[in-house]
Design a protein that fits this description.
Length: about 425
């Protein structure tokens, strides 16, 4: 059996298992074991045990369950209500008015969560009922929330950044720093869309009575202080070099616990639910990561990375052509897989090609997160679509349709960071 046929059989088996509903982690491990057993001389059991142990015992990966736990704690606190109360008074004079709470609220919560689904769900629980009560159009409320929820992946700390950093062996702290400006850029694009849409549809936005004085607005802003302090503690400890990403995650957990206790929202039941929620999520991710590491090893034995690199090289694509091809590839893949699975399935195969094209791995990580964000709002496997559909009982296709403008803006964001790569690279190169 020639190499090309082996690769085809492997890929067909992977997507066959995934299509049959087998867990992603088990699919990856099983296909890797089968490949090693049939097409290499190395004992498959020995390779699997060493690879999975190495993947599971990474110190860097310790940050992942900690950030997951921090997000679970905050998800169960009164943070969302406080965010709305602190932001709303300042947005009444801006075109689009309180629609901007979706964007700003998600951007702020993303800086302490790291999860797209948690960001979308937490802010959605707060803004959807309130904006609906005030008469804001459903399509814009859900569309902007669907897109803004993806900021949980781009604005640090980000779970996907940790997964990519481990898989690609790049600095997670530098990835965190690199995500700041693109995150602000994408939030700005979303807010710009709201402003333009509201100016084109002035009658669709209800009139808000701005009766608060400047002093009263400042007083309401005090509700933002706890989350701002937590952001400063987590990200400030990383950017100043006081703590690594893993140590900063521990700081975040302690800060989230203190915050929830002071708010009076922490109980023994809440503590258990947050811990169990983070544990379940991490076990799923860890199984996928371990299987992906083993599959990467198996692919190396059968020559898949080399074959893929040679095939892409034979296409004669320019660097820009490669970026466009990868964007289309990940958008299609995002219709079938979740973000973490996309990263761990492809990174080991694509990194040689990406490096050969002269793309910086930090920049490529941010690019990858942009296209994974698109996957969060593309059916049939769009986590943000699932979250909003479950919260509002709206059809998945409806939410996907109203999210199209956000999808287009993400493509615009990718083009901007390609043509101006310093938006990604300047900050990590100059902050030590």
């Amino acid at each position: 059996m020639n190499e090309s046929l082996v690769i085809i059989v492997l890929l067909v088996s992977i997507f066959g298992f995934l299509g049959a509903g087998v867990w992603v982690g088990l699919t990856l491990s099983g296909c890797a074991w089968l490949t090693m057993a049939l097409f290499s001389s190395r004992p498959a059991g020995d390779a699997m045990s060493l690879t999975i142990w190495g993947a599971a015992s990474s110190w860097t990966l310790t940050a992942l369950p900690l950030f997951l736990w921090m997000g679970e704690i905050l998800f169960r606190s009164r943070l969302s209500t406080d965010l709305f109360r602190g932001l709303a008074p300042w947005l009444n004079r801006l075109p689009g008015k309180l629609l901007h709470t979706n964007i700003i609220g998600c951007a702020i919560f993303a800086a302490v969560s790291g999860s797209s689904a948690a960001t979308c769900a937490t802010i959605g629980k707060m803004t959807i009922p309130e904006l609906k009560r005030r008469g804001y159009p459903d399509d814009q409320v859900l569309g902007t929330l669907s897109g803004a929820g993806t900021l949980g992946l781009l604005i640090p700390p980000s779970i996907i950044m940790i997964v990519y950093g481990v898989a690609a062996n790049v600095s997670i702290s530098r990835l965190f720093i690199a995500g700041v400006v693109p995150g602000i850029l994408l939030a700005g694009l979303f807010m710009g869309y709201i402003i333009v849409w509201s100016l084109l549809h002035p009658n669709a936005i209800p009139k808000e009575q701005d009766t608060l004085t400047f002093g009263q607005k400042l007083a309401e802003s005090r509700y933002l202080i706890p989350v701002v302090l937590l952001i400063v503690a987590v990200l400030g400890s990383i950017y100043t070099g006081i703590a690594t990403a893993t140590e900063a995650a521990a700081v975040g957990v302690v800060g989230a616990l203190i915050l929830s206790v002071l708010q009076g929202s922490m109980s023994w039941t809440t503590f258990k639910e947050s811990l169990l929620g983070a544990t379940r999520m991490y076990c799923m991710i860890a199984l996928i990561l371990a299987g992906a590491q083993f599959l990467t090893l198996a692919m190396g034995y059968i020559g898949l990375p080399r074959a893929l690199a040679e095939w892409i090289a034979s296409l004669g694509l320019s660097q820009f052509g490669l970026v466009l091809a990868l964007m289309v590839f990940f958008i299609i893949l995002g219709c079938l897989l979740d973000g973490i699975s996309m990263v761990v399935l492809t990174i080991g195969v694509l990194l040689p090609t990406v490096q050969a094209a002269g793309l910086d791995l930090i920049w490529f990580g941010i690019f990858l997160i942009f296209v994974i964000e698109m996957a969060q709002i593309t059916p049939p496997v769009g986590f943000n679509l699932f979250v909003l559909s479950g919260m509002t009982k709206k059809e998945l296709t409806y939410i996907a349709r109203v999210s199209v403008p956000m999808f287009v803006l993400m493509i615009v964001g990718v083009m901007i960071i390609y043509w101006v790569p310093d938006l990604v690279l300047w900050l990590p190169q100059n902050v030590r």
